[in-house]
Amino acid sequence: MTPSDRVATGLLTRADGFVQLITPEGERRADPDLDRWVVDIDTEALRGLYRDMSVLRRIDSEGIALQRQGEVGLWPPLLGQEAAQVGSARALRSDDFVFGSYREHGVAWVRGIDPADVLRVWRGAASSGWNPYDYGMAVPQIIIGAQSLHATGWAMGAKWDGSDAAAVAYFGDGATSEGDVNEALVFAASFEAPVVFFCQNNGWAISEPVGLQSKQPLAQRGDGFGVPGIRVDGNDVLAVLAATRIALDRARRGGGPTFIEAVTYRMGPHTTADDPKRYRTDDELADWRARDPIARVGALLAASGLDLETLEREVEVEAARAAGALRASIATMADPEPMTVFDHVYAEPHSHLDRQREQYARYLAQFDDGASAQTEGGAR
Amino acid sequence: MTTLTLGAAINAGLRNSLANDDRVVLMGEDIGTLGGVFRITDGLKAEFGAHRVVDTPLSEAGIIGTAVGLAYRGYRPVVEIQFDGFIYPGFDQIVAQVAKLHRRSRGTVKMPITIRVPFGGGIGAAEHHSESPEAYFAHTAGLRVVSCSDAADAYVMIQQAIASDDPVLFFEPKRRYHVKGEVDDRASLADAKPMGIASVVTSGSDVTLVTYGALVQVARDAAIAAAEEGVSIEVIDLRSLSPLDLVTVADSVRRTGRLVIAHEAGQQLGLGAEVAASITERCFEYLEAAPVRVTGHDIPYPPAKLERHHVPDLDRMLDGVDRALGRPNSLSGVEA
User: Fold this and answer.
1) What ipTM was estimated for this complex?
2) B129 is catalytic
3) Which residue among the candidates A253, A279, A346, A363 is catalytic per the annotation?
4) For residue B243, which residues of chain A lie inside 8 Å, CB to CB?
5) Residue of B73, B102, B112 lying closest to A344 (CB–CB)
6) C-alpha distance from B69 to closest chain A C-alpha (Å)
7) Which of A161, B41, B136, B218 could cross-link with B36 by S-S, CB 3.0 to 4.6 Å?
């Protein structure tokens, strides 16, 4: 029986709550189901994951700083969820397709999307920052859980096409209460769609604790739908990578969907508009700070004889460069031209909107800078 | 030319679309083996297979949401919502996802999804089976909304809707499903009247009577009855509710000077209000009287034994025409 077959028989978890390969103290744990899925992750590859997470953390903090300085309207920080996002996204192939929520800056980073293109949307400078087909990642989703159905539909199509590509839906613990996620589980199970439901249980849906969403561990949510679950330490990048590879392998071999609950914690606010001090304690925060996803990889690398200080200096340079590039991108992020408000609403001409467009162009043309009305689509 | 019922015409149109483009898939509840509760998809699963004509779980958000994912992958899903009143569980996916994803992705992701909805009353159905929810969707940017009224239009328009790169809400007048009409099944789709253009179905000179769906036939009958009293009604079938073909309506009103709009849906903030306002803006100096609305009441759809008091019939349309003409009518002497 292979590990992914074992998942198919039910929930993959452990007596202490979840599967884990690196303890918070940075000790490597053996696991009979997960180990063989990460045999290729040598010290060099582990350094790569450390670097990913560290640079990501810096990009994220830069996003907060830019919001505080008024350059960005809103930013949803991912501090604390670096392992869940990097570990899962590193398991994907380029022809797999990601349907994320609004917090997956880390997944976008791994997919090769410029952080400036992520920021662009939060600045309000564009409806979207990238072409989904260039990166195998859908545009961000604000409606909680809606993307789980999109991922399922994409996966149904992939299966009908004879492809072994898979879709991944990212959502949070709050989204599991939405109808869409539950309907996605029904569809995915019924059609054996090659989709991975990747739930980042970060403890809080804005101010509501996960206990308000579910009385059971979320990984069990799939049971009633016939979707097996894996409950993984979401702050353990190696275990997350292994769990996602297991789920993807099932999907590619026709085994159908898998529900992964990555148990992690949102260290910061829900968004920059939120004040988590109103609803959670310092003790809880301290408890989770001790389970930091980056520090434990550093400790493991140090224990293996690597000079951690040198690595930290290298990573610091790279992180500073990425953060600087993100900050510099603001300077070239021009406000969109006024007439672009009418663009792309329809793929084909729509007489009502075309008339409104013409009328507004005439209105703008009365002003000195009316020339700005002559933009993409403005002449249609 | 061949003679088909409106339902069979849609079936034939779906068959053509399935045969011509292997990215077209039909999805819905009971549409496969059963052929749909109205049999509109009858025989298509047997002909094209279970991966092209897909029986889905009973989940409207699920059907529409997975259609979004399929569209992301390049499919052209054609979704059947079993009854008008069942569309609401899928409302979020339609107005927040289907309508907006082309815009949200700056034109990179197409949503060529057709959502078929049997709508309207007059068949003695149970609650939630007779509604007219079209205004919700016509109000939503990014969606196209159309309604056919006869077999010929149904055959062409369903194929046009599926071929459109935009999402289309396709409202089918369910009480007309069994009415036969001539269908030109040899004509090229490229030569057909575009989906967004209204039809003048009866020419007239005194009043323009605008409607769509099942009420088009009622309006035709009203025009015949009015002619006996010497009143000439021009009946326009809107066909498209978003965009509205206001050019055709305005051309007519400039000749007749009077406008009546009829629909089964409730009056408040309905299509009638939009047509009245838009035509008043365009044709104010041509109007001899204020536009008149003949609509369903602003009530939940009533029980079957009362529906004839809700759905506008020939007499209520003629009463509306009398109001537009200033002839004695039900509101004579009533201050607004």
Assistant:
1) 0.94
2) yes
3) A279
4) 350-353
5) B102
6) 4
7) B41
Chain A: give the shortest CA distance to residue B108, in Å.
6
Q: From start to end of B121-206, where are the E strands?
A: 144-147, 168-173, 180-183, 199-202
Cα–Cα distance between B115 and B122 in angstroms, integer? 22
For chain B, 336 residues long, the average pLDDT of each consecutive 10-residue run is 97 98 98 97 98 97 98 98 97 98 97 98 95 98 98 98 98 98 93 96 98 98 97 98 98 98 98 98 98 98 96 98 96 83
The model's pTM is: 0.94
Domain boundaries, chain A: 3-332, 340-372
CATH level 3 topology of B199-325: Rossmann fold (3.40.50)
Question: Using CA atoms, how far apart are residues B85 and B136, in angstroms rounded to an integer?
Answer: 12
CATH 3.40.50.920 positions along chain B are 199-325
Please give, rounded to a whole number of angstroms, the shortest distance from the CA of A271 to a CA of chain B: 21
B-chain residues near A190 (CB < 8 A)? 57
**Interchain CB contact of A286 with B (< 8 Å):** no
Looking at domain A3-332, does it have CATH number 3.40.50.970?
yes
Exactly one of A270, A291, A296, A357 is catalytic; name it: A270
Out of 3.20.20.140, 2.60.40.10, 3.40.50.970, 2.40.10.120, which CATH number does the structure's domain B2-191 have?
A: 3.40.50.970
A266 is catalytic: yes
CB-CB contact of B124 with B311 (8 Å)? no
